[in-house]
Amino acid sequence: MAVEKMSIAKALNESLRKALETDPKVLVMGEDVGKLGGVFRITDGLQKDFGEGRVIDTPLAESGIVGTAIGLALRGYRPVVEIQFDGFVFPAYDQIVTQLAKMHARALGKIKMPVVIRIPYGGGIGAVEHHSESPEALFAHVAGLKVVSPSNAGDAYWMMQQAVQSDDPVIFFEPKRRYWDKGELDTESIPLPLHKAVVAREGNDLTLVAYGPMVKVCLEAAAAAQEEGKSIEVLDLRSMSPIDFDAVQASVEKTGRLVVVHEAPVFYGSGAEIAARITERCFYHLEAPVLRVGGYHAPYPPARLEDEYLPGLDRVLDAVDRSLAF
């Protein structure tokens, strides 16, 4: 078994390298992805090894980056584009939602759009405005886009492979404050389907559902709750569109309680859709209302206030206690 311990950042780098080696139609594009290797060094060394024709430093123009990727996809390429920070994606939002997401349907299935858009997202790194946002619900709401986020090195590697191989556009959210978290990667394993949720920790009393950066927080909360005799199940959603509702339902039917956790604001967040669907599906199994934990409905604050804004261990455990009190 080719098992190795590495960071999420390194796993993504290895996955992109593998994709470039495997398929000559794969291209990597973005601001500073070439010579610099990306601001988080996710593409470090790729331009040196594959050349400037396949790992391309672009102008600072997100709309142009995505528009060019759409044109390349029409010509048979598989572009993987990087949006340097989450808040920078909005100049390209029009291209993504009115062109990239619609092209397959507009062409009655004759045109495919194998484009991956990598977006480092979320807070926790002490960055300035427009560098710490969580806009995943905006993209999950748009039909025609797949939206995923890994929480560990193994998923980072395999989900990137699957995203690159997809004939549909994938918005690939990378939890930037977890880039340096290490985990095991088995490059010879059989990966889960891209949109399959996975139980990260077994439990019986309550289900915590999370994805990306909040999976680690939920695992820590489950460990803390166990010290008080509470058995918490943690489900790593992995995909925000489509959502593996069957996995969430199976867990809730076992535990009877659900708390959904994400960094993005609770208001109109992806947790609202999960709460509504599970309330419909599991009404007679629920022992308490579905609760949501997330950011506040406010612009992302300066770095010194991040700890107050981001949902941490205490806020998750408070929701667990409120649910178990019903």
From TrEMBL:
<dbReference type="Pfam" id="PF02780">
    <property type="entry name" value="Transketolase_C"/>
</dbReference>
<dbReference type="InterPro" id="IPR009014">
    <property type="entry name" value="Transketo_C/PFOR_II"/>
</dbReference>
<keyword id="KW-0560">Oxidoreductase</keyword>
<dbReference type="InterPro" id="IPR029061">
    <property type="entry name" value="THDP-binding"/>
</dbReference>
<dbReference type="GO" id="GO:0016491">
    <property type="term" value="F:oxidoreductase activity"/>
</dbReference>
<dbReference type="InterPro" id="IPR033248">
    <property type="entry name" value="Transketolase_C"/>
</dbReference>
<dbReference type="InterPro" id="IPR005475">
    <property type="entry name" value="Transketolase-like_Pyr-bd"/>
</dbReference>
<dbReference type="Pfam" id="PF02779">
    <property type="entry name" value="Transket_pyr"/>
</dbReference>
<keyword id="KW-0786">Thiamine pyrophosphate</keyword>
<feature type="domain" description="Transketolase-like pyrimidine-binding">
    <location>
        <begin position="6"/>
        <end position="181"/>
    </location>
</feature>
<protein>
    <submittedName>
        <fullName>Alpha-ketoacid dehydrogenase subunit beta</fullName>
        <ecNumber>1.2.4.-</ecNumber>
    </submittedName>
</protein>
